[in-house]
Write a structure and sequence with these properties.
Layout lengths: L16 H8 L5 H4 L3 E5 L3 H13 L2 E5 L17 E2 L11 H11 L6 H21 L13 E2 L9 E2 L5 H19 L2 E4 L2 E9 L2 E9 L5 E5 L2 E4 L20 H8 L4 E2 L4 E7 L22 E5 L16 E2 L1 H5 L9 H13 L11 E4 L1 H7 L1 H19 L8 E10 L2 E3 L11 E3 L4 E2 L11 H23 L10 H20 L5 H16 L5 H21 L11 H25 L23 H4 L1 E6 L7 E6 L14
Parallel strand pairs: 1-2, 1-10, 2-6, 10-18, 17-19
Antiparallel strand pairs: 3-5, 4-5, 7-8, 8-9, 11-17, 11-20, 12-16, 13-14, 13-15, 15-16, 20-21
This protein binds flavin-adenine dinucleotide.
Flavin-adenine dinucleotide (FAD) binds next to helix 3, helix 6, strand 7, helix 7 and strand 16.
Length: 638
């Protein structure tokens, strides 16, 4: 591969760039669309919205998901809201402000044309969802209600209580199922993507394993869209659904798709702390709670009094103290770092001093319990069920946890990866969030990709690149099937003594220690050495039951953890190579005297795009970033 392909970023006036580009894209007649087959992997917000829209346009669409129902995709868990620049709150919001917040929030490590397009499209997403019947919260007068999220000074987050993802997904699901009913979409559930099929350098299908029968299947298409979500579960404990994984994007990467900025991962500041060593998942407490919740710690070290016994003057509202402009609404990377620093210094509360308080008392006194319950009801119930404490009377205890991955497969402005014909949508791609995603912007991006961008750009690709259809017994399919078969045989033959989860847990500990909230060169190098040893032990001693026919959940996990090992190595290498701090990538060697990230625009104003070296040595390419509409400045929330 000769470096990074042309990212096809439009030149000229940024405000009209997407409109100009869209109007210049070739179209396909509705009649011809019926002869074209598309394959969409994933039924989260990005996949469902893309599949429904493309089928609505007339394409034949096959949709694959490992879940038993599209509604189980991890998007269903999104809580707090979705951003859009509609200025309903009359607080001066605008497309250019959302654009600027997104680019600045990502610490100038994203393409500005992409960020602008996202801000432009945001309002149409809300229109689409309202038309579908998504029950967004409303004001007394009937207008849509908004709240604030971190990293912005306006109120632009639309929400449906603490269930925004679920409600948006139901909207996209309805649209998807309408097309299933009409015959435009063939829905294949319980299928795990294990390889990408490439013919003459172009993505033409996938190999997947039927999780119920154990059979391997090859599915071919004229274009493939991956919308398989993020890879936070590389850390084992994360806020993601248990089965969220990196396999689809990792296998595409092995087949030639560049992987962009894998080390850009987000640690969310407000999660319920881990209870014990056997916990398998962490639960998020939505950032929206910081609209009304105040974050604090006792001023004195080792103060073990009940929070209600600690008077206001003996509390450290550390975010309000350190960041008077944004207070509790600083972006996630900043809030996470500050909380961890204080806990490491011994100021934390709870078991092992590993949490900080998120306190709703002032808001309850000011606005009343009913208002707070209406705004966050299900989140507070969830907290009480998990922790046993009532957040209406006792401050919640929270701690940072892995949550979102800004890194992902490199895509150009058309969302096409470096493998022609392979499009990547939603959290699976690396796109507009740079080094740090702002709260409530992931849903916006996934739906912008699925409802608006991919339908236009996939059509343009198909119009310009007619290809003969290929049968599922094409030599490339047989070759991919044989390779997957061999990989499965390898894992089944190990017959070791240690369960997959044990290896995954150890990998997670390693990654959070070496490549978590903060990183340094020595820790990353040590991490690479430890990773190699752990991976060798996994390959020699993993225990997978030998069932080839029928369900085999241990095999499913082993295949995913195998991919996580390979991805973890790339994350460590990427973090080591990026000798600067930016957004959520905090290299301890590169910080200002007051502990803020120090970017190096001269050497690192680029996207790192990694090629999978066939000898096992990844190759780092770069796509330089140019800024014309907004010049890089030091991110300051003080
Ligand atoms: C607890 C929580 C709360 C959040 N709250 C918010 C919020 O309030 N606002 C916001 O903007 N963002 C939020 N986010 C982030 C946001 O929810 C996600 O980034 C977004 O939903 C991802 O959508 P997606 O469509 O890209 O992927 P997903 O919803 O993860 O869907 C992935 C799909 O791919 C399929 N899949 C994956 N791998 C394979 C494979 N190998 N083979 C076959 N199928 C596969 C899965 O079955 C699934 O259908 C939150 C995230 C979490 C964890």
């Amino acid at each position: 591969m000769n470096g990074v392909p042309d990212p096809r970023v439009p030149g000229g006036d940024i405000a009209a760039a997407w409109q100009r580009r869209r109007e210049s894209l070739p179209l396909i007649s509705p009649l011809r669309k019926k002869s074209l087959q598309l394959l969409v992997v994933g039924t989260g917000l990005a996949g469902s919205s893309a599949a429904a829209t493309l089928a609505e346009q007339g394409y034949r669409v096959k949709v694959l998901s490992f879940h038993d129902s599209p509604r189980r995709a991890h998007s269903v868990a999104a809580q707090g809201g979705i951003n859009a620049a509609r200025s309903v709150a009359v607080d001066g919001d605008s497309v250019s402000r959302l654009f600027a917040d997104t680019l600045r929030g990502g610490d100038f490590r994203a393409r500005e044309a992409g960020c602008h397009r996202l801000a432009e499209i945001s309002s149409s997403i809300i229109d689409t969802c309202v038309a579908q019947g998504v029950p967004f919260a409303r004001e007394y007068g009937g207008t849509l209600a908004t709240r604030s999220f971190g990293g912005s000074l306006v109120s632009r987050t639309f929400y449906a209580r603490g269930q925004t993802g679920q409600q948006l997904l139901y909207g996209a699901y309805q649209a998807l199922m309408r097309q299933v009913e009409l015959g435009g979409i063939e829905l294949l559930t319980r299928r795990d993507l294990l390889d990408l099929i490439i013919v003459d350098g172009v993505a033409r299908g996938v190999v997947c394993r039927n999780l119920l029968s154990g059979e391997l299947e090859a599915h071919t298409a004229d274009a493939v869209l991956l919308a398989s979500g993020g890879y936070s579960n590389v850390y084992f404990l994360s806020t993601n659904a248990l089965k969220s994984n990196a396999s689809a994007i990792w296998q595409a990467h092995r087949k030639g798709a560049l992987f962009a900025n894998p080390c850009f991962t987000q640690i969310h500041p407000t999660c319920i702390p881990s209870g014990d060593a056997y916990q398998s998942k962490l639960t998020l407490m939505s950032e929206s709670l910081r609209n009304d919740g105040r974050v604090w710690l006792p001023l004195a070290l080792g103060d073990h009094r009940q929070p209600s016994e600690i008077p206001a003057e003996e509390r450290d509202y550390f975010l309000e103290r350190q960041y008077p402009a944004y207070g509790n609404m600083v972006p996630r990377d900043v809030a996470s770092r500050r909380a961890r620093e204080l806990c490491n210094a011994g100021q934390g509360v709870g078991p092992g001093n590993r949490s900080v308080y998120l306190d709703l008392q002032d808001a309850i006194e000011r606005q009343g319990k009913d208002v707070i319950a209406a705004r966050y009801g299900n989140l507070l119930q969830m907290y009480e069920r998990i922790s046993g404490d009532d957040p209406f009377t006792t401050p919640m205890r929270i701690y940072p946890a892995p949550h979102y991955t800004m890194g992902g497969l490199w895509v150009d402005y058309h969302l096409m990866s470096s493998v022609p014909g392979l499009f990547v949508l939603g959290e699976a791609n690396y796109s507009e969030h740079g080094a740090n995603r702002l709260g409530a912007s992931a849903l916006m991006q996934g739906l912008a990709d699925g409802y608006f961008i991919a339908p236009a750009t996939v059509t343009a690709w198909l119009a310009g690149n007619p290809t003969p259809s290929i049968p599922s017994d094409h030599p490339a399919c047989l070759e991919a099937l044989a390779a997957v078969n061999k990989r499965i045989e390898r894992l089944l033959k190990v017959k070791g003594s240690q369960p997959v989860d044990g290896f995954h847990r150890q990998l997670g500990h390693l990654m959070i220690d070496c490549c978590g909230i903060s990183r340094n060169a020595q820790g990353l190098r040590d991490g690479l050495a430890e990773l190699e040893t752990l991976q060798q032990r996994f390959e020699a001693d993993v225990c997978v039951s030998a069932e080839r026919v029928g369900p085999n959940p241990e095999l499913e996990k082993a295949l995913r953890v195998d991919d996580f090992f390979a991805l973890a190595k790339l994350m460590l290498l990427d973090a080591l190579a990026r000798e600067e701090s930016c957004g959520a990538h905090f290299r301890e060697e590169h910080q200002t005297p007051d502990g803020e990230a120090r970017r190096d625009d001269q050497h690192f104003a680029h996207i790192a795009a990694w090629e999978h070296g066939n000898d096992g040595k990844p190759i780092r390419h770069v796509e330089e970033l140019a800024f014309t509409a907004l010049q890089p400045s030091t991110r300051s929330y003080r």
